[in-house]
C-alpha cells in the first residue's frame, strides 16, 4: 500500500466525508492542512495537485484525486475488504451514487456553497430566505430517501451516509431539524453522531462551519 495523504481543512464538509471513509476503512494517512482563507489552494504548487484548486485532495503513492465522492469511492474499491460501504451490486451501487450526486448538487452546491460564497468571499452578510427554504426542501427529500431504513441506502452505512452527514451536520446551523417534522432525518443524524470517532472526524469541523456562518450572517431577508 502506498502512502496516503489527505489535503484539507476541518470546516470543509467534503474533507470530513473523506475522513469518515478513511476511518471506517481503518486506513492510516497523513493529514495536511490547506488554509483556504489564506489562499493556499490557489498556489502553483497546489494547482499542480488539483487544477480545480478545491479540497479535499487525496494523494496515493504520488497520484492525486480530488472531488470527495470520487475519493471515497476510490478508497473503498482500492482498499476495502468488503463492499459494504460501496456495494458492487448494480442496483445497490446506483442507489449510493444517487445519494452522492444529491449531496454534490443539492446539499453542497445548492445549499452550502450558494450561501457560503457571498458570505465568505463577497462580504455580503444577508442571506435570502429562499436559500434557507432550499435547505428545508432538501430535508424533505432526505426524509423520503431514509423512509423506514436505518441509513440512507438500507441497513448499513455507506459512503453516501458519510457524504450526506458532512453537509447536513453543518446545515443544521442554518436550518434546524425539527424532530416532529423530520423524524427519520433526525433519527438518522443521531445514529450517525453515535458512530465511533464521529465527533473528532466530523462533529467538530461541522460546528466550525456553523460558527463561521454565524459570525457573518446579520439577517435572513
Ligand atoms: N464537490 C466537491 C466540492 C469541493 C469544494 O468546493 N471544496 C471547497 C471547500 S468546502 C473548496 O475547496 N473551495 C475552494 C475553491 O473552490 O476555490 C467535493 O465534494 O470535493
TrEMBL record:
A biological process term (GO) from this entry: glutathione metabolic process
Alphabetical list of InterPro entries matching this protein: Glutathione-S-Trfase_C-like, Glutathione-S-Trfase_C_sf, Glutathione_S-Trfase, Glutathione_S-Trfase_N, GST_C, Thioredoxin-like_sf
Domain GST N-terminal: 2-83
Domain GST C-terminal, chain residue ranges per copy: 89-220
Coiled-coil region(s): none
One Pfam family per UniProt: GST_N_3
CDD domains to which the protein is assigned, alphabetical: GST_C_Delta_Epsilon, GST_N_Delta_Epsilon
A GO MF label: glutathione transferase activity
PROSITE patterns in the cross-refs: GST_CTER (PS50405), GST_NTER (PS50404)
Subunit structure: Homodimer.
Name the UniProt record assigns to this protein: GM21883
Biological classification of the source: Eukaryota, Metazoa, Ecdysozoa, Arthropoda, Hexapoda
